[in-house]
Amino acid sequence: MLEAKNNDELPAIPGKRYFAIGEVAELCGVKPYVLRYWEQEFPQLKPVKRRGNRRYYQRQDIIVIRQIRALLYEQGFTIGGARNKLQGEEARSDVSQSQQIVRQLRLELEDILRLLRR
């Protein structure tokens, strides 16, 4: 297995839409079989599967994989602990996005109300 490197030392993610599993393995510093295993363990990882059941990862998948890698290899989390941490962050992110949408809607409604009062 590859030794744990800091995510800052990993190569930059190229500006492509889809990445093959071999490319992702190199970009994230893990073996392809590890990526396939993590797909089973982390519901956040859902690469697109096309012809012949080939996996194609997107930029967001690579970011999640790097987060998983950091949790497991650098911070010492177990698979279950990393899964829980990611799910907790996902829930907080959903709440934060919802709050941001509500704030934006409120501002737009206040603008409309000001226009109507004129």
Short description:
The protein has helices at 21-28, 32-41, 59-74, 79-117, and strands at 19-20, 48-50, 54-57. It is mainly alpha-helical and 118 residues long.
What key attributes describe this structure?
118 residues, mainly alpha, Multidrug-efflux Transporter Regulator, Chain: A, Domain 2, three-stranded antiparallel sheet, 8% strand, elongated, disordered N terminus
Classify the beta-strand content into a percent band.
5-15%
By CATH, the architecture is named Orthogonal Bundle
The domain count comes to 1
The N- and C-terminal alpha carbons lie at a distance of 68 Å
The helix count comes to 4
CATH topology: Multidrug-efflux Transporter Regulator, Chain: A, Domain 2
Order of helix and strand elements from N to C terminus: EHHEEHH
CATH class: Mainly Alpha
Report on this model:
- The protein has 118 residues and is mainly alpha-helical.
- It has one domain (7-117): Multidrug-efflux Transporter Regulator, Chain: A, Domain 2.
- 62% of the residues lie in helices and 8% in strands.
- It is built from four helices and three strands; from the N terminus they run βααββαα.
- It has a three-stranded antiparallel β-sheet.
- Helix 3 (59-74) crosses helix 4.
- The relative contact order is 0.12.
